[in-house]
Design goal:
This protein is α+β, with helices and mostly antiparallel strands. It folds into three domains: 147 residues, Beta-Lactamase (2-Layer Sandwich); 67 residues, Orthogonal Bundle (Helix Hairpins); 153 residues, Histidine kinase-like ATPase, C-terminal domain (Heat Shock Protein 90). The protein has eight helices and twelve strands. The strands form three sheets. The protein has a five-stranded antiparallel sheet with strand order 2-1-5-4-3. A five-stranded mixed sheet has the order 7-9-10-12-11. Helix 4 packs antiparallel against helix 5. The longest helix is centred in the middle third of the chain and has 51 residues. The chain is rod-shaped. The two termini are 66 Å apart. The chain binds adenosine-5'-diphosphate (ADP) and magnesium ion. Magnesium ion binds next to helix 7.
């Protein structure tokens, strides 16, 4: 801003000063021409000095002193004031009124501006060239120069001050919503994630507040869901632990060694369930979205992984006399993924199928290519999942109405939440087909294949 004003003032000053010089110099040149005319009149027949009266009238200025000199074509002094110096100039065109020789000089230690013009004059039929010099002290010039500076600098200075005031005002006004927002944020507790209420702010700040509020509401949801998770998890762990404690107390009070043995057996069952729940909780926390980037995906053959998982589950199926079988293609089916997590996904689905199918039922697993995807199907002949439950079964700790909350069916409701997280991190989609036209339940998981 200041630089612009300085540049602007310098430009104006330069323009004004040039104009001033030109006007003054042209005036001087006019005077020199008049001196030339008077000289021509006074020297018609012979070379003669000019009439003092008429010249003094011409060379009178209220603020400055003026002098003249007439010199011959060699620049030698003829008349007037010998101190008025002559400077030879090249290429002066006498016919051009704007073309004359100007220069600075000094007379008796006073600085003067001199204009020199050439004239032609014939005396007694001999044509000769003369140079007329007119010099003027520079009082009025300096005075006007001062005034130009003054009249340029004052308005520019006023302009500068008003611009500064204006800029300051605008910046303050523009920043005030941000400063206000800042105060509001500073004054907040880290626990307070309610939306910030800032009204009548410019559009940009409004957007910023909107994004901040969105972020806070997401954070709020995440924190609430974490709290709920911890709460639910504690609850899930408390139930079997309370059971274990009760069994221990009963065993302590009992003298019957048979009874003690049964109690110990029950304690062992509850402990196993507890370990299972804890393992599932750990597995769930490892599949949180933020863990996704930490995993290194590898090329996995889903076919052999599925068969390997099934082998681990045959004992469980045998226990319930369930016919667990693989009926899909035996071709390798490659996907990019994390082997342990994919194992958990398949394991949880088959485990549910076995768990929620009555004895002597059937669980079929197969892999096939469907619509450019690799589709894993886990099919059972069990009780099916009520339509109302279907949207909810992937939520953490959710257990359907179709299962009993104790005994063989007992679970923590985490299995499918894990399945869903693992599917998400592998960009796989899950579909359920249950309680439609066929009995039992079918889970379909669609994986993105990699070309081999
Ligand atoms: N194959 C299935 N047949 C019937 N219901 C099922 C099946 N798989 C899952 N479900 C239902 O989904 C719910 C959630 O399953 P899951 O998350 O594995 O928890 P859990 O098995 O511990 O109950 C189960 O409680 C049950 O209601
Ligand atoms: Mg389960």
């Amino acid at each position: 801003m200041i630089i612009i004003i300085i540049l602007d003032s310098s430009f104006l000053f330069y323009q004004g000063d040039t104009l001033r010089k030109e006007t003054f110099d042209r005036d001087l040149a006019e005077t020199a021409k008049s001196v030339g005319l008077i000289f021509k009149k006074s020297s018609v027949k012979k070379l003669q000095d000019i009439d003092e009266n008429s010249i003094s009238l011409l060379l009178t200025e209220p603020h400055d002193k003026m002098f003249y000199s007439i010199r011959d074509d060699q620049g030698r002094f003829l008349f007037g004031n010998p101190d008025v110096a002559y400077q030879k100039a090249e290429d002066i065109d006498p016919s051009d009124p704007d073309d004359f020789n100007v220069y600075f000089s000094s007379i008796k230690n006073e600085s003067v501006r001199v204009v020199s013009i050439p004239i032609e004059h014939s005396i007694g039929n001999i044509k000769k060239q003369f140079f007329i010099q007119v010099a003027e002290t520079r009082n009025q010039r300096t005075e006007i120069q001062k005034q130009i500076i003054f009249w340029i600098l004052i308005p520019q200075f006023i302009l500068l001050i008003s611009a500064l005031i204006l800029v300051r005002f605008a910046v303050n006004k523009g920043l005030s919503p941000i400063l206000y927002l800042n105060e509001k944020i500073i004054a907040r507790s880290y626990k307070d994630l309610k939306p910030i209420d800032v009204q009548n702010v410019p559009l940009e700040v409004d957007r910023l507040v909107g994004s901040l509020n969105n972020l806070m509401s997401e954070l709020d949801n995440a924190i609430k869901s974490e709290n709920r998770f911890v709460n639910d998890a504690a609850h899930q762990l408390r139930t079997p632990l309370a059971g274990i404690l009760a069994q221990i107390q009963l065993a302590q009070e009992s003298k019957n060694s048979e009874e003690i043995k049964t109690r110990l057996e029950q304690i062992s069952q509850s402990s196993k369930r507890l370990i299972h729940i804890i393992n599932q909780l750990l597995s769930l926390s490892k599949t949180q979205p933020e863990a996704k980037h930490a995993t290194d995906f590898q090329k996995i053959d889903l076919m052999s992984l599925t068969k390997k998982t099934m082998e681990d589950l045959f004992p469980l199926a045998d226990l319930k006399k369930i016919d667990l079988g693989y009926e899909g293609s035996n071709d390798a089916a490659f996907v990019m993924g994390d082997e342990h997590k994919l194992y958990d996904l398949i394991h949880n689905l088959i485990e549910n199928a076995i768990k929620y199918t009555p004895s002597s039922g059937k669980v079929n697993v197969f892999l096939e290519n469907k619509d450019d995807k690799i589709c894993l199907t886990v099919e059972d002949t069990g009780k099916g999942i009520p339509k109302d439950d279907q949207p909810n079964i992937f939520k953490r700790f959710y257990r359907g109405d179709n299962v009993s909350q104790s005994g063989d069916d007992a679970g923590a409701g985490i299995g499918l939440a894990i399945v869903k997280e693992i599917a998400n991190m592998h960009d796989a989609t899950i579909e359920i087909d249950s309680r439609n036209d066929k009995p039992g339940t079918r889970f379909y998981v669609y994986f993105e294949p990699i070309k081999t």
